[in-house]
Amino acid sequence: MISSFQELVESVKGRAKKTIAVAMAEGEDVLKAVAYAHEQGLADAVLVGSRKKIIEIAEQAEIDLTDYDIINTNSEVQSVVRSIQMVRENLADTLMKGICSTATLLKGILDKEHGIRTEKLLSHVAAFELDSYPKLLFMSDGGINIAPNTEAKIAIINNAVNIVKRFGVRKPKVALITAIEKVNYQAMPCTVDAAIICKMAERGQLSSCIIDGPLALDNAISKKACEIKGIKSPINGEADILVMPDIEAGNVFYKTLNFFTNCRVAGTLVGAQVPVIVTSRADSKEIKFNSIAMAMQAS
Known about the structure:
- It is a single chain.
- This protein is an alpha/beta fold.
- The protein folds into two domains: 5-117 and 272-298, Rossmann fold (3-Layer(aba) Sandwich); 123-259, Isopropylmalate Dehydrogenase (3-Layer(aba) Sandwich).
- It is 41% helix and 18% strand.
- It has eleven helices and eleven strands.
- It has helices at 5-13, 28-39, 51-60, 76-88, 102-110, 150-165, 189-202, 217-221, 223-229, 247-260, 285-298; strands at residues 18-23, 43-49, 69-72, 94-97, 123-129, 137-140, 173-177, 210-215, 241-243, 264-270, 276-277.
- The strands form two sheets. It has a six-stranded mixed beta sheet, with helices on both faces.
- Helix 1 crosses helix 11, helix 2 crosses helix 11 and helix 4 (76-88) crosses helix 5.
- The radius of gyration is 20 Å and the shape is globular.
């Protein structure tokens, strides 16, 4: 089981190197992450965007572009379309968001004629390496689905479970996060969703994971909290995956850990034909590099 990003990098190094199409690559942290991934033997890349700006930024950051193809484009939309076209034509194995907006990237991915959509729901899976937790902790969805209904949450769970299994976790423990541990059907519909999903799992409809909810965050990640509250759960404070009730909870959780702790973070978009490396434009080079490694492991 891969339990740290260092172990993840070593795992990816042992695989055949793949190629990333970087949509709108004219960003310093993007170029630094891609260059480091190339240096570490994780992936090659094709840089799509303004050739002039990419070269200027690379020179300022002292990044050698000798080993990279640059495809010149004149707009954000053109950069996204061309990058996706490379994936469709098998010229790239995965897609990475540069400094383009997530909305533009998603529109291109979901285009019925020219995109890389599948029948699956798109969802974002984040991974955290925390000093206070003994293994990688995954969370979904803090970036794509705003207020998922029961059906969407099941799809989010399946997407996350498929990713985590590639990290060597045979049967991931999935915690359905809410503010409380009891079902409150009047005031908190997310607790009802959790109860329904757990009943489905009990009847064998979600057999690929161990799942429980509704659970407050402390019950999902702390055995002591479960003991104090008298909660008996198959998760028992050892969750691999936290499924958030909505994008607000997921986004705040992601950014709180990212900005207020020393944790290491990665994230990828799943449900398309290939994993898509989607990070915030404000995310660091390290997060972008870890996300490249995560996508390579998932592909």
